[in-house]
Amino acid sequence: MNSAAFANTGSGFKDPEKLSFERDWIRRAVLASYWIVIILAFPFWWHLTSIERLALPTSQVRSQLQSNIVFPIAIHFDASISQQNPSLNSQVQTLLHDSAINEPGRWRGVDIRLQDRNDEVASSLYTVALGEQTSIAHSRNLRVNRTDAQSATRLSSILSDLIAPPESGTSHSQRVVQYSDHYRLAFTLLNEDATPNRFVATWDVQAALAEFIYPLMSQLSILHNFTVESQVQYHAPLAFEPRRVTLGDTEVSGLTQEDLTVFINSAEWTLASSVSNDPVLHFVLFVPSETHSPMNIIDSEGRPINQSSFLLPQWGSIFILNNELNSSSLHLSYNDLKPVFRNFATQLAALLGVPPVPLGLSMEGSFLSDWQLDALLRHRALQNVQGSQDTLHSIIKLVDQINNMPVGQVVRDDVLDALASLHEAYRTAVTSPALALRWSSKALSMASRAFFNPGMLALLYFPAEHKYAVYTPLFASISVPLVVASIRDFMAWKRGSQDNGRR
Amino acid sequence: MRRASVWIFLAYLCTPSFALYRKEIYKEDLRIQSLRDGQVSTTFSFVTVLEGAGPRNPKALGQRDESQHYALFPLTLGQILREYAITELHLTLNAGKWNYDNWGHPHEAGVGTGAELWAWMGASEVTTVDERWSGLRNALSGLFCASLGSLDSRRTLSPTVAFPLSGSTPTFSPHELRHASLPSENVCTENLTPFLKLLPCKSHAGLATLLNPQKVFDADWHGMGVHVIWKEDTGIELKLSLQTVFNPVRTSAGKRRDWNLQSLFDRSIERSCPVASSSSITVILPEGKDHKITPENPSYMDGLAIYDLSSSSNFTIPSNIAMYWPSEHSFQYRKSLSVPLPPLTPITPLSVKRTIHGTTQTRGVLSVSVTNNSPQEISVGYLEMMPALITMWMHTLKVEINSQIRSDLLSELKYHPPSPQSNDRFSPSMLQAVLTIPPKTTLKISMEVNKAFLKYTEHPPDAMRGWDLPGAVFFPLSQLSHNTSSSYDWERIYTPTLLVDLPTPDFSMPYNVIILSCTLMTLIFGSIFNLLTRKWVVMEIQE
């Protein structure tokens, strides 16, 4: 009825195509303006939702991997030696050169030169002079006796042992703690089980420290700072039951090599420190309980070995005290502690990577010679440089691989700082190894700070699927009519142009 | 190397030097008291004194610290104290409500539910007090496995009057107090284990052997405390305390209040701690004569039975200490089937009740009623420390006795409203006043409060549970005038915590909002788009 009325009066309507807003071009303009708005908004949307990824100095880091720190070393033979054998200089030079080619790992970072005259004042100038016996003297001097001075091979092997100490396989590198400019040294007297007739209540730790540890610390102070602390514990049970071994007519508790690896009972012994992130080196004086005493370390065949201390790699050292203790001596005097702390001092040096004095060489004076300190300085600086290079390279690789990882200004600054410190380390290596070490340590800490920056993990766990889940309810329902309308209009336009063409 | 050390050793052998030792003393004590409701309160206190030691001067924080050498004092705690230059430290972790009316004042005053930490620190330009406070919180939460790290600026206040320095005041710099409490902290075995590790003999010997976590945490009330106090004439005193209130009537089969160490702790002391200079168990004997105590050879002195366990004394370690009531068949407390008994008068002179009520999620009324049980007038300090979840309206504060307004009984009112901080958080508000309560009357304080509307992300995972509010603190007024509190036998009274229900959102809300607003946008867009691009034609319908 209605439709019939509409149809009948149809001629009364205007033709819709003649209406001003029903023109084709207006409709297409409306459609196009929607698309233009979408296209214009796209960059804004992209910018607002993208992750901040600043460009890292990739090429600089890559080029860093090739460069290396080099310490020039000059050795001067005193006139007393070169007069005896004029060709000695060149012979030693060739031998050292050959050794450097054969063992590049050991000689890395060392550029050795032999000098005739003492004219050039380099930072690391070592002097070899004739002496009564072969020994290390103060301030970078080496005395050799007459027989050693004759032989070029002997001289070159002593020199290479001193300047580039051999690393005895992997055990050495695993034992030495990672470089840090600050260590805490924690000395602990552990009573396995304090009973009234067998326990140690106090010890003369300060006197023993002043004797054996502080001199070593002051010598190593160009490498590290130390904080020393000590405590006594009265109940420190072992996590395992040591084996009983009969030895002659006595019975002892034996610790096998496997036992030593699980000796530290970290659940029961309160050794950990909670206030700082500095690495802690533990030195434990262990007093076995009445039932476990005496306690010996045994070898694979069950025989006790003549050693009462052992070193745990990168952790510290343990000394087992088997002294006779009676109820009157609840105090360990300085004299009782002397063997213990002499041992601790050696272990501390070993843990920090101090190279040993080559065999057959005696030493005058202090705990460490300048030769050893210099070699340690060079080694640590080289390690730090390599460590920071590796870390920087890992950052670059990681950022390359994970596209969602944000890289903020802080990370970028840290990376740039690390690179600048590395350059400083290379520059100062020529004049001062100690300064080079400080720069290399700064580079390493900057690089690790950048690597562990918490900001880099922020959006890693915000997957793209979440974004789609948020966007689709809006974008899918809007884009469908837009796309359909565009296609329909495009088809209409095509049909219209074909019609026009036919006409 | 070896030769060098021999040389040095020889050199030193001629001039032997012995460093002077700081003397360290360790004492342990256990107090057991039968309470009138049949419960048994036990208080362990382990005191280590570092003689002659002093707190670190905070002005020297930038420099290297002296080495720390301890024999009895725990190194892990010593490190924290020196690292953050703490002069005085009090940490308590408690669970349960201390029933003052029946149990009296506790031996250790800090019985507020949950975690409470307060520290006095010297001011310094090197690191501010707030930086060190935050470091201290994090270090202690690591040491005690407690969530003290969340005691941040939203919980921290400085109520110096109620929490004064207990020891001496160092002269090196002006001192500041930081106090925070977390009533929702749950105390459990993981807090007791590190606590025991601070003791020289751990739980292997001495009184601490008794601390069996299964029994301690089964007690009706249990709490532990760490107190570090510096006293000028003695040194640094570390007091580790552990209080429990057991209920033998509940656990025993015959409903008897008899107790012995074995039944309370399910452990016995096998041996004494060899480094303890004194070690004793003190039993506070109840009034009346019908109880028996075994073994019977302790030294008695005015109502106390003292058993000395230290290794130096000739007294052998008693295998078990027991108290029993031979004439009593089963313990009846306030229970009578025939006649209703009149209520017993509370032991403490003050009893406090505190509630928050109101029907809506946005408003409420906080009311506190304080009863004076003694025949004398009592003046007491009243302290509220409210997190910014609750805003107290001071103009609605009413003080009443028997529905009569008595504003004259409240004086020295101090109020700090919650203040916004740099990190977009609000500090707690603090209300402090002096109440004067006439004898044998009940004083009622009430005020209207507003509950905060929190942001979606500020709610905890169990948002529907509500928020715990810390208890109010009542403190004797002698502390205001800095007299010695000898006339008062109590330090502080904590009221139980409150649970407040804040408006909680529907947590699926963000997605609902996204979906709803997208649908709306699409509808609007679709209709307008259709209107603009629709092609109108007139169809002629042929009939």
TrEMBL record, chain A:
Q: Which UniProt keywords apply?
A: Endoplasmic reticulum, Glycoprotein, GPI-anchor biosynthesis, Membrane, Transmembrane, Transmembrane helix
The subcellular location is: Endoplasmic reticulum membrane
Which GO terms fall under biological process for this protein?
Answer: attachment of GPI anchor to protein; GPI anchor biosynthetic process
Question: What organism does the UniProt record list as the source?
Answer: Suillus plorans
Q: Transmembrane stretches, by residue range? A: 25-46, 468-487
So what family is this one in? Belongs to the PIGS family.
Question: What's an example GO cellular component term for this entry?
Answer: GPI-anchor transamidase complex
From the Swiss-Prot or TrEMBL record, give the protein name. Answer: Phosphatidylinositol-glycan biosynthesis class S protein-domain-containing protein
UniProtKB/TrEMBL annotation, chain B:
| N-terminal signal peptide | 1-19
Domain of life, per lineage: Eukaryota
Query: Which biological process annotations from GO are given for this protein?
Result: attachment of GPI anchor to protein
Q: What InterPro entries does the record tag this protein with? A: PIG-T (IPR007245)
* Ranges annotated as spanning the membrane: 511-532
Alphabetically sorted, this entry's keywords are:
Membrane, Signal, Transmembrane, Transmembrane helix
Q: One Gene Ontology cellular component annotation?
A: GPI-anchor transamidase complex
What is the name attached to this protein's record? GPI transamidase component PIG-T
